[in-house]
Amino acid sequence: MQGPIRNILTYVDGTEESITAAQYAILLALSSGASLTAAYVINTRALSDLVRTRIFLEEEQQEYQRDIEADAERYLNHVRQAAEEKGLRIDTEKRSGNVHQQIRKLVEERGIDLLVIGELSRIRSRRDEFFNETERAMRGVSCSVLIVKDDERVWDLFEQAQTAGG
Asked: Tell me, what CATH number does 105's domain have?
Protein backbone atom coordinates (compact mmCIF):
# COMPACT_ATOMS: atom_id res chain seq x y z
CA MET A 1 0.00 0.00 0.00
CA GLN A 2 1.28 3.42 -0.97
CA GLY A 3 1.37 5.93 1.89
CA PRO A 4 -0.10 9.43 1.83
CA ILE A 5 3.15 10.99 0.65
CA ARG A 6 4.19 10.02 -2.88
CA ASN A 7 5.82 13.18 -4.22
CA ILE A 8 7.83 15.63 -2.14
CA LEU A 9 9.08 19.05 -3.23
CA THR A 10 11.74 20.88 -1.26
CA TYR A 11 12.42 24.54 -2.01
CA VAL A 12 16.09 25.51 -1.92
CA ASP A 13 17.01 29.19 -1.85
CA GLY A 14 20.61 29.02 -0.68
CA THR A 15 19.89 29.68 2.99
CA GLU A 16 21.08 27.32 5.67
CA GLU A 17 17.42 26.75 6.59
CA SER A 18 16.60 25.58 3.08
CA ILE A 19 19.56 23.17 3.05
CA THR A 20 18.38 21.75 6.38
CA ALA A 21 14.89 21.38 4.90
CA ALA A 22 16.37 19.55 1.90
CA GLN A 23 18.19 17.13 4.20
CA TYR A 24 14.96 16.45 6.07
CA ALA A 25 13.12 15.97 2.78
CA ILE A 26 15.76 13.42 1.75
CA LEU A 27 15.19 11.53 5.01
CA LEU A 28 11.41 11.66 4.50
CA ALA A 29 11.68 10.39 0.94
CA LEU A 30 13.94 7.56 2.04
CA SER A 31 11.63 6.47 4.85
CA SER A 32 8.38 6.85 2.89
CA GLY A 33 9.48 5.68 -0.55
CA ALA A 34 8.30 9.00 -2.03
CA SER A 35 9.93 10.67 -4.99
CA LEU A 36 11.77 13.91 -4.28
CA THR A 37 12.25 17.08 -6.29
CA ALA A 38 14.46 19.98 -5.18
CA ALA A 39 13.67 23.33 -6.76
CA TYR A 40 15.48 26.67 -6.90
CA VAL A 41 13.65 29.67 -8.30
CA ILE A 42 15.61 32.66 -9.54
CA ASN A 43 13.54 35.62 -8.42
CA THR A 44 13.37 37.74 -11.58
CA ARG A 45 10.86 40.08 -9.93
CA ALA A 46 13.48 41.09 -7.36
CA LEU A 47 16.04 41.63 -10.13
CA SER A 48 13.63 43.84 -12.05
CA ASP A 49 12.87 45.84 -8.90
CA LEU A 50 16.60 46.47 -8.39
CA VAL A 51 16.88 47.91 -11.89
CA ARG A 52 13.64 49.87 -11.65
CA THR A 53 14.74 51.55 -8.42
CA ARG A 54 18.14 52.26 -9.97
CA ILE A 55 20.03 50.15 -7.46
CA PHE A 56 21.39 48.19 -10.42
CA LEU A 57 22.12 49.25 -13.95
CA GLU A 58 20.91 46.80 -16.60
CA GLU A 59 24.49 45.57 -17.18
CA GLU A 60 24.82 44.87 -13.45
CA GLN A 61 21.50 43.02 -13.54
CA GLN A 62 22.83 40.65 -16.21
CA GLU A 63 26.00 39.97 -14.23
CA TYR A 64 24.02 39.46 -11.04
CA GLN A 65 21.63 37.11 -12.83
CA ARG A 66 24.56 35.02 -14.06
CA ASP A 67 25.86 34.84 -10.48
CA ILE A 68 22.45 33.78 -9.16
CA GLU A 69 22.13 31.11 -11.86
CA ALA A 70 25.54 29.76 -10.87
CA ASP A 71 24.41 29.76 -7.22
CA ALA A 72 21.25 27.88 -8.18
CA GLU A 73 23.29 25.20 -9.93
CA ARG A 74 25.70 24.96 -6.99
CA TYR A 75 22.93 24.55 -4.39
CA LEU A 76 20.96 22.07 -6.48
CA ASN A 77 24.14 20.03 -7.08
CA HIS A 78 24.84 20.08 -3.33
CA VAL A 79 21.36 18.71 -2.59
CA ARG A 80 21.64 16.15 -5.41
CA GLN A 81 24.97 14.90 -4.00
CA ALA A 82 23.54 14.70 -0.48
CA ALA A 83 20.62 12.60 -1.75
CA GLU A 84 22.87 10.34 -3.81
CA GLU A 85 25.13 9.78 -0.78
CA LYS A 86 22.08 8.35 0.98
CA GLY A 87 21.12 6.24 -2.03
CA LEU A 88 18.21 8.40 -3.16
CA ARG A 89 17.52 9.48 -6.72
CA ILE A 90 16.37 13.10 -6.81
CA ASP A 91 15.07 15.39 -9.53
CA THR A 92 16.22 18.99 -9.53
CA GLU A 93 14.46 21.90 -11.14
CA LYS A 94 15.83 25.40 -11.73
CA ARG A 95 13.26 27.98 -12.72
CA SER A 96 13.08 31.73 -13.12
CA GLY A 97 10.21 34.03 -12.32
CA ASN A 98 8.00 34.87 -9.41
CA VAL A 99 8.99 32.47 -6.62
CA HIS A 100 5.61 31.68 -5.13
CA GLN A 101 3.99 31.29 -8.56
CA GLN A 102 6.73 28.93 -9.77
CA ILE A 103 6.45 26.81 -6.64
CA ARG A 104 2.66 26.60 -7.08
CA LYS A 105 3.16 25.54 -10.71
CA LEU A 106 5.63 22.84 -9.72
CA VAL A 107 3.24 21.50 -7.08
CA GLU A 108 0.48 21.21 -9.68
CA GLU A 109 2.65 19.89 -12.54
CA ARG A 110 4.32 17.19 -10.47
CA GLY A 111 1.37 16.17 -8.30
CA ILE A 112 3.24 17.13 -5.13
CA ASP A 113 1.77 15.82 -1.86
CA LEU A 114 4.15 17.65 0.49
CA LEU A 115 6.16 20.87 0.23
CA VAL A 116 9.13 20.92 2.60
CA ILE A 117 10.59 24.34 3.39
CA GLY A 118 13.07 25.77 5.85
CA GLU A 119 12.11 27.84 8.84
CA LEU A 120 10.66 31.17 7.78
CA SER A 121 12.56 34.34 8.57
CA ARG A 122 11.19 36.57 11.28
CA ILE A 123 8.75 39.10 9.85
CA ARG A 124 9.51 42.62 11.00
CA SER A 125 6.86 44.58 9.13
CA ARG A 126 3.71 44.21 7.01
CA ARG A 127 5.88 44.95 3.97
CA ASP A 128 8.21 42.04 4.84
CA GLU A 129 5.19 39.80 5.26
CA PHE A 130 3.87 40.76 1.82
CA PHE A 131 7.20 40.21 0.08
CA ASN A 132 8.27 36.97 1.79
CA GLU A 133 8.05 34.69 -1.24
CA THR A 134 8.48 31.45 0.68
CA GLU A 135 5.62 32.31 3.00
CA ARG A 136 3.44 33.31 0.05
CA ALA A 137 4.23 29.96 -1.58
CA MET A 138 3.44 28.11 1.64
CA ARG A 139 0.05 29.78 1.85
CA GLY A 140 -0.74 29.39 -1.86
CA VAL A 141 0.05 25.74 -2.59
CA SER A 142 -2.65 23.09 -2.73
CA CYS A 143 -0.64 20.47 -0.81
CA SER A 144 0.42 20.05 2.79
CA VAL A 145 3.48 22.00 3.94
CA LEU A 146 6.16 20.96 6.40
CA ILE A 147 8.34 23.67 7.95
CA VAL A 148 11.63 22.18 9.13
CA LYS A 149 13.10 23.49 12.37
CA ASP A 150 15.78 22.33 14.81
CA ASP A 151 18.80 22.43 12.50
CA GLU A 152 21.10 20.52 14.84
CA ARG A 153 18.70 17.59 15.22
CA VAL A 154 18.17 17.36 11.46
CA TRP A 155 21.90 17.50 10.77
CA ASP A 156 22.48 14.71 13.33
CA LEU A 157 19.69 12.58 11.84
CA PHE A 158 21.08 13.13 8.37
CA GLU A 159 24.61 12.18 9.40
CA GLN A 160 23.34 9.03 11.13
CA ALA A 161 21.26 7.88 8.15
CA GLN A 162 22.69 4.97 6.21
CA THR A 163 24.74 5.89 3.18
CA ALA A 164 24.38 4.24 -0.20
CA GLY A 165 25.78 0.74 -0.02
CA GLY A 166 26.39 1.13 3.74
From this structure: 3.40.50.620
